Predict the structure of tRNA-(MS[2]IO[6]A)-hydroxylase MiaE-like protein.
Amino acid sequence: MVTWPWQRERRPVRTLRVRSRGDFGDVRRVDFEELAPDIDTYLGQAAYLQLGYFETLSQLIAPTPELSHKESLSRAAGAALLKHRELVEVIRSRGDDPLDIMLPFREPLDAFRRATHGARPLETMLSVHITAGMLDDFYLALSASYGATGNRVAQILTADDDRQALVKIITDAIAADEEWRDLLSLWGRRLVGDTLLIARGALRPQTLDAAEEKRVEPVFTDLLAGHSRRMAAIGLDA
């Protein structure tokens, strides 16, 4: 069983807020405290996730026959790598070693990436689009808890991710063969549980009680709503 870094030591508490994508001014504060992770956990997870998305997308390029699809995958992979590098620079600017900050999350996040890797390339493309979208939203919601550093992270995460290129490949495949619709709808629904576990695991070590669950609910309601919008935009049932 993996012991997450925040389960080993009690860190200073943070306040979690929800902000709209691209909005770095007014934010809607969610009424709960002591739930946001320490900043090393926040930055380490965010940076390593982007590196994982780069690796996953890069691995899809070689076996993909169509040149246009190779180019689309390379753009999405490049965008993930750029975000990773910029998050690494945020870590360095704080005087920390990025490898030290990311290393505690390598094992659990690699396990997450394996669990959400599809048997077919289209499933894996959908995995990246859905899980990266949900977790970007989650880290944006957390960003208001970390002052200027959080603002920098929010700006990085809201930059162009080029994942619409993946959506185009998926929608073209569905248009050519309707059997993909049901298969990918089912796969997309499966991704939700694994992704929410990553988000929930980052909040705090203890199991949430009923009152804390109620205070957390708006954040996860927003994540699920974003998931439904992404699935609907592809023509899939969420």
